Amino acid sequence: MKPVIKRPSSDDEAPVDILNVGCSNRSLVLLYLYHVNSGMAAVPDEALALSPHRWTIDELKSAYEEALESPVDVNKHLPPKQNRRYVIVGGSGLVGNWIVTHLLTRGEHPTAVRVLDLQPPRRELLDQGVSFVKTNVTDEKGVSSAFARKWEPEVADLPLTVFHCAAVIRPAERHRAFLDFCRNVNVGGTVNVLNAAKQFGASCMVATSSGSVCIRRPSFWIAPWTKVPKYLAQVLSDASPVPKEHDHFFGNYAVTKAEAEHIICAADDLKSNFRTGCIRPTNGIYGIGEDNSATVTGQYLRSGGNVSWTYDIIHNFVNAENVSIAHLNYEKCLIDQTKTPDQLPNIGGQAFVVTDPNPAVTFGDIYLLLSKFSKTPVNFPRVPAIPFVLLSYVIEWYALFQHMYCPWLPRLTGDLAQLQPALFFVTNVHTLCDDSRARKSPEQGGLGYAPPITTLGGMCKQLVEWNKNV
């Protein structure tokens, strides 16, 4: 009698097939995620060619000692005194504080300087005679009232310049549902300040925009046969086109800054003697400021560092004092061109990219400086980007769900709220700056911008200040 061989039923086969297929699919997914992570970490040749040198320990030591013993004299690089009144909106922030400081340093009368902000500027500025009016730029009447405050008799008849530096910086958000979080201040506040400037007779208004308005959103979810994401490396210059579609910007912050920039530049009018323009700092602003200043290096020092997947990412950074000098240069150019319109090119109603006077650096360069020379512990453990990218979509989904449907749920705050997809669209792009047009002379259509502080020198200067305070 032949043995009976029982064939496995379909119910018996199914678990084995599903398990095999499942393992195969999981392997493919992991391989693809590894591929995406490798693409995000790539350094394109064109970016490396513009930033081939990495900081060394000896170089850092020399720069730190120089910052400690003979820091750069910024004062001699300031444009001359203009004998005007000044309203600095957002004058308590990092850039605004330096504009106020530089105005006083070059000899402007302290009572001719007025700061509009939610918080007062540094105590020493107020002690010198600078006035402060607590102002919410989204409040149209409040802005108008702050501009309407009487000036001291000795300066009341001087012409008026407005520097507009107030902004809300929320780099992590990209969804239109969150747009008003930035737009209320960055656009609505700008309109209120612009209208008040016109109403109260300002003849010059220079605003702080952002180099990020030209960053094109990359797509990290590349095809398996593609090695490098599109737009992974970008060179930003005054010729760079501003994206037209919301989803082409890296995030909502850039969308609103581009809109505000357009409004300000469109208001320039030589005939009515109302001159306007914008400065685009590229990309991260750093420098000595208040303890809570939202600077790249300051946040690292206060937090003791953080995990990082951006060691090899190349960026141009710009010192806040250099940004201030660019604003003052633009003001002088607009005043001079208004006086002699036939002798100087008309650069009113334009935006100028500015950065530090050196090639771009990597985040790894900055990590090395801070970890080796800070008197407080600063560490940057290297981690792959892709787990955090995946987590960012979950966080974004929760933030969107909470905002649109369940406002009673806890709102995300702090570092967790920052970990959304748009953050990677700006931090994981090699962003290099070409500010050659701003460096041209006014006769050539530039600002005569000659920044005195290098990124290494400026970060060492900030580190010296940090170490002294701690």
Number of helices: 16
Q: Portion of residues in helices?
A: 40-55%
Write the H/E string, N to C: HHHEHEHEHEHEEHEEHEEHEEHHHHEHH
Described by the principal axes of the CA atoms, the overall outline is: globular
Strand order of the largest sheet: 3-2-1-4-5-7-11
Mean pLDDT: 93
Description:
With 470 residues, the protein is an alpha/beta fold. The protein is 43% helix and 12% strand. The strands form 4 sheets. The chain has a 7-stranded parallel beta sheet, sandwiched between helices. Strands 6-13 form a two-stranded parallel ribbon. It has a two-stranded parallel ribbon with strand order 8-10. Helix 3 crosses helix 11 and helix 4 crosses helix 10. The longest helix has 32 residues. The radius of gyration is 26 Å and the shape is globular.
Q: Layout of helices and strands, plus pairs?
A:
Blueprint: H1 10-41, H2 45-50, H3 57-69, E1 85-89, H4 94-105, E2 113-117, H5 123-127, E3 131-134, H6 140-148, E4 160-164, H7 179-199, E5 202-208, E6 233-236, H8 252-266, E7 275-281, E8 284-286, H9 296-303, E9 314-315, E10 317-319, H10 320-339, E11 351-354, E12 361-362, H11 363-373, H12 386-404, H13 414-418, H14 421-427, E13 430-433, H15 436-439, H16 455-469
Parallel strand pairs: 1-2, 1-4, 2-3, 4-5, 5-7, 6-13, 7-11, 8-10
Antiparallel strand pairs: 9-12
List keywords for this structure.
470 residues; alpha/beta; seven-stranded parallel β-sheet; 16 helices; 43% helix; 12% strand
Compose a concise summary of this entry:
The chain is α/β, with parallel strands linked by helices and about 475 residues long.
